[in-house]
UniProtKB/TrEMBL annotation:
Native source species: Nothobranchius korthausae
Composition bias type Basic and acidic residues, residue spans: 50-63, 71-85
GO molecular function, one term: protein serine/threonine kinase activity
GO cellular component: cytoplasm; cytoskeleton
Protein's UniProt name: CDC42 binding protein kinase beta (DMPK-like)
Length: 850
């Protein structure tokens, strides 16, 4: 049939064009990949050449530095012998280390003039001197008192005398005169001498030189790192960092300090003041094994000027969350030589820390708790973990329960803004602070499964404008209680399963407006401005203040009001009180138990804790402290992250899109199953038959669109089609009544057994190949069932009048088999007693109209 031949040739041409197009697309992609690899190789080559030049300069500087170092060592020993003064033992170990040939030249000790003291900060009277606990400076954060900075005085005494040390507050980053470490903190950073310019940490007080004032020849202390413990300052200087809106908007000045295995950045206001503040804008832990320091290319900073590019370097930390990019910081040094110095110091310090096995402690491991495309995450105000597979989210539209493993969303409570969630599993009750009036609502446990809650909920009428609430048991074996704070009033309710679920027990008044509420060793603790107190139950004795007025070392709290953020029991007899500027350890009577205080690197926004660690949230990220040793153990540089529950396990990261972050640690391990998440997910909330339940899945239209996009990719499309391996059983028939037949043909051996000649003739082989078209286009094939195929073959066999021999020797000039010849094939397969056609494969048993 000419029309059929024309259609078939058109389809073959179309198939050839598709194959050529696929090959062309694959070639273009391969070319793009080669170009990308070439660009990377060029960039790596340029970077390698710059590093080679830097290493050559470093080698020359090392020789000069070693000579200068030997001279300085001789002079230092001669001065110390004359004055009869000796540095602490750990300083001697530093000198010995840095005299080794493998010394990094920029980490050597440099003379620092101790006479350069910070500016005066105020006129608050100083508190009495404290007896120092000698902790050998293990922590970089050391306490202090809100007194003014020490005045520079030129008084000289005829005879040497001891220092007159008192707690001081410094208004700019200051280094300890003894250990050279940065004095971290917002206030009360350390001791200062009232006569001379000596400044030190509280833990360094015992090692202070006994001579006051310090002689001029001894006023210069070496600056360096104790490589055994990572204490000391390696380098400091002024740099520029991008403005918050990016490099395109320009650069802003900052003060950078490499101290105690961390890189501190302090913003400098754009006003006339050139001194940085004491609140850190960013802290990066250099003990991070994946932290890297490198130069940048012009393509990396497209908005920077060409003259600035040689002075820019990048500091990149490890990837905190698998789906989240790593924290990267661009730094613009004052000159190219200064930039090389910064890079060399940071790289050398990393190698020293690795050599001495000073690794960072991973207390919190970050995971993404659920898919970021869930729309209710953006409006989440609070959250809690219900069990291993469910979390409750309090949003601006109500309470939702998310089943993280099944992608089921349950709308548990009505459309009211939820500020806090408290669970009372003992009585199967959920307490919420919600609504415009911030009232406490009680809901039965059944609302978590999607049951109606409007008739079963209970509202506590006296809790309007509630700031905070907590739950617990006030006495062993007693009932579960809910405690709510409204201004200064603290109300206690007994919770039960029977409606109305609550019974008011008593009401007490706090010393001031309640800022924090919690349970400490089965006692109710309230936090208010500059104080904490243990409230007594109704009819018992008066409240016990945890900031005792009889302790003179705590009087500064009354002079300088601070917000109360958190309180946590430490051991059997201690309590850590966290204020907005520092943390203080006290005993059960409210007296100071440690002179060591916790210093915040930046202004804290919130505090959370478990039995072993304190987590402090600030503008630049999260800092983790060991409750027992007061050591600063971990820094998470994630901006705009805040806790959603009291334990700090669920957090909201205000990125784009907002992400729900789960902090996994030893105390929370196994509390929540971490689901697999992906970026740019197309999942949507699909309503089910229940009006309170939704399925979070990809819609059918979006799923089909994704399949279409996949099919457009020639490489992926070729992978979806299996390779052609054996087509002996396929026969492509010509046009009939609108249908074509797929039938089984005998193999070559079967055909030869039916042939009268002992060996197959060339004509029979070519005939078999003419029956099979190339595996390029199968749209003309109609797949029949075994029953319909058998009926069709019998019909063709009965109407055929040709012999069996004509099938085995068809004309080689024919481009395709005719219907009659294929009918003879059916006759042969139907009536030959020596041949039985194999059954049709299962995957061919489909029907499709052409």
């Amino acid at each position: 049939d000419p029309l059929w031949k024309l259609r078939r040739s058109q389809k073959l041409d179309m198939s050839a064009r598709l194959e050529l197009q696929s090959a062309l697309d694959a070639e273009l992609k391969a070319k793009q990949l080669v170009q990308e690899e070439l660009r990377k190789v060029k960039a790596a080559n340029i970077n390698l050449e710059s590093k080679l030049k830097e290493s050559e300069e470093r080698r020359r500087e090392t020789v000069e530095q070693m000579n200068n170092l030997n001279k300085e060592m001789e002079e230092s020993h001669s001065r110390s012998d004359k004055a009869g003064r000796k540095f602490p033992d750990f300083q001697d170990s530093i000198f010995d280390y840095f005299n080794t040939p493998s010394l990094a030249p920029d980490l050597t000790f440099r003379p620092v003039d101790v006479d350069t003291t910070p500016e005066k900060s105020g006129t608050t009277p100083s508190s009495p001197s404290f007896t120092s606990e000698n902790e050998d400076g293990k922590t970089p954060s050391i306490p202090a008192s809100p007194s003014p900075t020490p005045p520079s005085s030129g008084l000289t005494a005829p005879k040497p005398k001891a220092h007159q040390l008192s707690i001081k507050t410094f208004s700019s980053p200051t280094l300890c005169s003894h250990c050279t470490s940065l004095m971290v903190g917002i206030c009360r950073q350390g001791y200062g001498c009232e006569v001379c310019s000596f400044i030190c940490h509280i833990s360094c007080k015992e090692h202070a030189p006994p001579v006051c004032p310090i002689p001029a020849e001894q006023a210069k202390r070496p600056q360096g790192i104790d490589v055994q413990r990572g204490i000391g300052t390696a380098y400091k200087g002024y740099v520029r960092i991008p403005k918050p809106s990016g490099v395109k908007k320009g650069w802003q000045r900052a003060f950078a300090v490499v101290s105690d295995c961390k890189l501190f950045l302090y913003d400098i206001p754009e006003a006339k003041s050139t001194q940085p503040g004491v609140v850190a804008s960013l802290v990066l832990d250099l003990r991070d094994e994946e932290l890297s320091v490198s130069s940048v290319l012009e393509s990396d900073v497209i908005h920077a000027t060409k003259k600035d590019i040689p002075c820019i370097f990048r500091v990149t930390s490890s990837q905190l969350i698998p789906q989240f990019s790593s924290v990267s910081l661009l730094v613009l040094a004052e000159s190219e030589a200064e930039k090389k110095k910064w890079v060399r110091i940071l790289e050398s310090l990393q190698s020293l820390l690795t050599k001495n096995q000073l690794k960072s402690q991973q207390v919190h491991v970050l995971h993404e708790a659920y898919d970021a495309s869930l729309p209710i995450i953006k409006t989440t105000q609070c959250a809690t973990v219900l069990d291993r597979e469910r979390i409750a989210l309090g949003t601006e539209d109500g309470l939702f329960v998310v089943e993280v493993t099944r992608d089921v969303i349950v709308r548990a409570a009505d459309s009211k803004k939820v500020y806090q969630i408290e669970l009372i599993p003992r009585e199967n009750i959920i307490a919420l602070i919600c609504g415009r009036n911030r009232q406490v609502h009680l809901h039965p446990w059944g609302v978590l499964e999607g049951s109606e809650s409007s008739f079963d909920s209970s509202k506590l009428g006296e809790t309007k404008n509630c700031q905070v609430m907590t739950t617990g048991v006030l006495r062993p074996g007693g009932p579960a209680c809910l405690l709510a704070a409204v201004k200064r009033q603290v109300q206690c309710y007994e919770i039960s399963r029977a409606k109305p679920y609550q019974k008011k027990l008593w009401e007490v008044q706090a010393p001031d407006t309640v800022q924090w509420l919690g349970m400490l060793r089965d006692r109710l603790c309230v936090g208010y401005s500059s104080g904490f107190a243990l409230l007594a139950l109704q009819g018992e004795s008066s409240p016990i203040s945890l900031v005792s007025p009889a302790d003179p070392s705590l009087t500064f709290l009354a002079q300088q009001p601070m917000d109360a953020l958190h309180a946590q029991a430490v051991g059997a007899n201690e309590v850590l009180l966290c204020f907005s500027k520092l943390g203080i350890y006290v005993n059960g009577q409210g007296r100071r138990s440690r002179t060591q205080e916790l210093m915040w690197p930046a202004t804290p926004l919130a505090c959370c804790s478990n039995s072993s660690h304190l987590t402090v949230y600030s503008e630049y990220g999260v800092d983790v402290f060991d409750l027992h040793t007061s050591e600063w153990v971990q820094t998470v540089p994630l901006r705009k992250i805040r806790p959603l529950n009291a334990e700090g396990t669920l957090n909201l990261l205000s990125s784009e899109p907002p992400r729900l972050i789960y902090f996994s640690n030893t105390s929370s391990e196994g509390d929540l199953t971490i689901p697999e998440t992906m970026d740019n997910s197309k999942k949507l909330m699909v309503r089910t038959r229940s009006k309170r339940k939704f399925l979070f899945k990809v819609s059918e239209e979006e799923r089909l669109q994704q399949i279409r996009e996949k099919l457009r990719d020639p490489e992926l499309r070729s992978k979806m089609i299996s390779n052609p391996t054996n087509f002996n059983h396929v026969a492509h028939m010509g046009p009939g009544d609108g249908m074509q037949v797929l039938m089984d043909l005998p193999l070559v051996g079967d055909l030869t057994s039916l042939s009268p000649s002992p060996s197959p003739s060339p004509s029979s082989s070519s005939s078999r190949h003419t029956l099979i078209s190339p595996p390029s286009n199968f749209e003309h094939i109609y797949h029949m069932t075994s029953a319909s195929a058998g009926a069709f073959l019998q019909k063709e066999a009965s109407s055929s009048s040709s012999s069996q021999q004509s099938l085995l020797q068809p004309s080689s000039s024919s481009s395709s088999p005719s219907i009659s010849s294929l009918g003879r094939v059916g006759q042969l397969l139907s009536f030959s007693s020596s041949f039985h056609p194999p059954p049709l494969p299962q995957w061919w048993k489909l029907q499709q109209l052409t």
